[in-house]
Automatic annotation (TrEMBL):
<comment type="function">
    <text>The B regulatory subunit might modulate substrate selectivity and catalytic activity, and also might direct the localization of the catalytic enzyme to a particular subcellular compartment.</text>
</comment>
<protein>
    <recommendedName>
        <fullName>Serine/threonine protein phosphatase 2A regulatory subunit</fullName>
    </recommendedName>
</protein>
<comment type="similarity">
    <text>Belongs to the phosphatase 2A regulatory subunit.</text>
</comment>
<dbReference type="InterPro" id="IPR016024">
    <property type="entry name" value="ARM-type_fold"/>
</dbReference>
<dbReference type="GO" id="GO:0007165">
    <property type="term" value="P:signal transduction"/>
</dbReference>
<dbReference type="InterPro" id="IPR011989">
    <property type="entry name" value="ARM-like"/>
</dbReference>
<dbReference type="GO" id="GO:0019888">
    <property type="term" value="F:protein phosphatase regulator activity"/>
</dbReference>
<dbReference type="InterPro" id="IPR002554">
    <property type="entry name" value="PP2A_B56"/>
</dbReference>
<dbReference type="Pfam" id="PF01603">
    <property type="entry name" value="B56"/>
</dbReference>
<dbReference type="GO" id="GO:0000159">
    <property type="term" value="C:protein phosphatase type 2A complex"/>
</dbReference>
Length: 469
């Protein structure tokens, strides 16, 4: 046996067996390498670590309209619970989410948010006041789900690096998000405002695109439809954006003021968003007081002629602008502003007249009027005297007396001179009326004489024609 063990044949068999064994081991190792590749290994880790989250995301992709009677209320409640589980997970992430979770998560959010909105309930109704909007708005029945979805979206924007999220929250996503501002549900618009605002300030590479998209919405509203529920919310976002502008302002931002913000004053539904609009305009004037003249002329251009509620709002805004205008522009704008205020204090609507009279309690307004007393006083004195003589409201007359006392104390001599000039103009106007009446009387007398002169001739011609017949 020992000879056989040491024979050449035995050693050859052992060697060959050993080589075959090595070949088998290499083949097995290559198969194992193919099975446990890095991608499959990562996928298995994701499934083991985030399997429950992926299952929740998949379940939340089911959409409920809340209007279909065939939908199960219990299934709706289950989805809401799943959404809350997902929200609690997003609030306390242990580590950055992998791409394999972000992609289906954003897809789920898109499926829930980007939906066709119901037809507007305000097609033939123009809201006159901010409170009126709620009377005609439609609340979304899907809000129990949408509310949680928006909170999840906020957490995604806050917790995930914008560079990582850029591939999923893209321009198309932002356009769809902007279109949802047409929702009539104020709760949804508030959530949208929060999300859109956070995206603007975190995703700096999208800022120019987002500004342009919002401008397009404004221009379409001004010059085309005048139907959009989210103008106020978009203006609130713009108010924060304008607050961050550096001085001197870029030409692009000045054009936005002149071509978008000022024309927004002319829309029928301006009362709903006037507070936000006035804030944006005043932000511009505070940053560059030299723009005050452009803004004042623009507001006077769109001054309402028949809408008293809008007129009161315009007076409020004009008074606030006076406080921010560059004092060097007072002399250029004093006559324009005081002329418009004088027209308003003569308004037959007592609210408009009283609001215009209260402007004289503003120190900056009085200072502006004092800078051009020679030009402003004749207009103001005429308006005051008209109110004292003709206005029907006792409260308006009382306030007018206060204004009269104020301007009389500013320059008694000039006030007396303006009264005399006004009396002289009224005398001349009275003389013109007398002459006009005398001319009409002469014309009527001449017409009566001509009628008497031509009447016999007409009778004679009538008889001659009858005889010829």
């Amino acid at each position: 046996m020992g000879a056989l063990r040491n024979s050449p044949k035995a050693s050859q068999i052992k060697k060959s067996t050993t080589l075959q064994h090595l070949f088998d081991l290499e083949a097995n190792s290559s198969d194992d390498t193919m099975i446990y590749s890095p991608e499959s290994s990562r996928q298995s880790i994701i499934e083991s670590e985030y399997g429950e989250i992926l299952s929740i995301i998949s379940h939340c992709c089911s959409i409920f309209t809340f209007t279909d009677p065939l939908e199960s209320p219990s299934e709706q409640d289950v989805k809401r619970l799943k959404l809350f589980q997902l929200l609690s997970f997003m609030k306390k992430p242990k580590k950055p989410l992998p791409v394999e979770i972000i992609r289906p998560l954003v897809s789920m959010l898109s499926a829930n948010l980007f939906r066709p909105l119901p037809p507007s309930a305000k097609r033939t109704v123009v809201c006159e006041l901010p409170g009126d909007e709620d009377l005609f708005s439609t609340l979304s029945p899907a809000w129990p789900h949408l509310q949680v979805v928006y909170e999840i979206l906020v957490r995604i924007v806050l917790n995930i690096d914008p560079k990582v999220l850029r591939g999923y929250v893209d321009e198309r996503f932002l356009v769809n998000l902007l279109s949802l501002f047409q929702s009539e549900d104020r709760r949804e618009r508030d959530s949208l405002k929060n999300v859109y605002h956070r995206i603007y300030f975190k995703f700096t590479f999208y800022r120019e695109i987002m500004r342009k998209s919002m401008n397009d919405v404004f221009l379409h509203y001004i010059f085309d439809s005048e139907k959009h529920s989210g103008i106020g919310e978009l203006l609130e976002i713009w108010g924060s954006i304008i607050n961050g502008f550096t001085v001197p302002l870029r030409e692009e931002h000045k054009l936005f003021l002149m071509r978008v913000l000022i024309p927004l004053h002319k829309a029928k539904g301006m009362q709903v968003y006037h507070r936000q609009l006035a804030y944006c305009v005043n932000q511009f004037v505070q940053k560059e007081p030299m723009l005050g003249g452009t803004v004042v002329r623009g507001i006077l251009k769109y001054w309402p002629a028949t809408n008293c509620q809008k007129e009161v709002l315009f007076i409020d805004e004009l008074e606030e602008l006076v406080e921010n205008i560059d004092p060097d522009h007072y002399r250029k704008l004093a006559l324009l502003i005081c002329t418009q205020i004088s027209r308003c204090l003569n308004s037959l609507n007592s609210q408009v007249a009283e609001r215009a009279l209260y402007v004289w309690n503003n120190e900056q307004f009085v200072k502006m009027a004092s800078s051009m007393m020679e030009e402003v006083f004749p207009v103001v004195v005429e308006g005051v005297q008209k109110n004292l003589k003709w206005h029907w409201s006792k409260s308006v007359k009382q306030l007018t007396e206060n204004v009269k006392t104020l301007i009389e104390e500013m320059d008694p001599d000039l006030y007396d001179r303006c009264l005399k000039e006004l009396a002289h103009r009224e005398y001349l106007a009275g003389q013109e009326d007398i002459k006009r009446k005398e001319n009409w009387e002469r014309l009527e007398l001449a017409a009566a004489n001509n009628h008497q002169f031509f009447q016999p001739q007409n009778v004679y011609m009538h008889h001659v024609s009858e005889r010829r017949i």
